[in-house]
Specification:
Oligomer: single chain
CATH architecture of the largest domain: Beta Barrel
Number of helices: 2
CATH class of the largest domain: Mainly Beta
Radius of gyration: 19 Å
Number of strands: 9
Order of helices and strands: HEEEEEEHEEE
Structural class: alpha+beta
Length: 149
């Protein structure tokens, strides 16, 4: 009886350690946070923190699993298009968008974000943040949000 209790206790501890290890390295699987069905707010693009002026919307992207469609706001215009997700591989496009003129910081953020989306070849969730990747290069960092206005 004591041997089986010790074995069961050890197995439980081992399971917790394995799950913790998988989550800590950012494996995009069912046991981790999902890419799809969330709105992701842009925090950083190509190594530069995205500052949003007071009263302005933060750029974002959402991935709709049922329609295999990405939609979002790039900092000046709304965009939409298809995406393909196969495990850790992710590609977007082509993207369509509204055609509002963008100058200054909003235009620069929009250009960098759209370029990052176009160059994305993979994804990973690390510490609750979505990383859009080209190989090992982090193109953009985003955080999950509940509501976007």
């Amino acid at each position: 009886m004591i041997k089986s209790t010790v074995k069961a206790g050890f197995a439980g501890v081992a399971f917790v350690v394995v799950v913790w290890a998988l989550l800590s390295i950012g494996i995009p699987a069912d046991c981790a946070q999902s890419l799809e069905g969330q709105t992701w707010l842009l925090l950083e693009v190509k190594g530069t923190k995205v500052e949003v002026p007071s009263g302005e919307r933060r750029p974002f992207v959402s991935f709709n699993k049922v329609e295999a469609r990405a939609t979002g706001y790039s900092g000046c215009n709304n965009f939409f298009g298809s995406y393909e997700l196969k495990g850790e591989a992710l590609s977007l496009g082509p993207l369509g968008m509204t055609r509002r003129f963008c100058a200054g910081v909003a235009g620069s953020v929009e250009l960098a974000f759209l370029q990052a989306l176009g160059e994305t070849r993979a994804w990973r969730i690390e510490n609750g943040m979505l990383l859009l990747l080209d190989g090992s290069t982090v193109l953009a960092r985003l955080e999950a949000a509940q509501d976007v206005k």
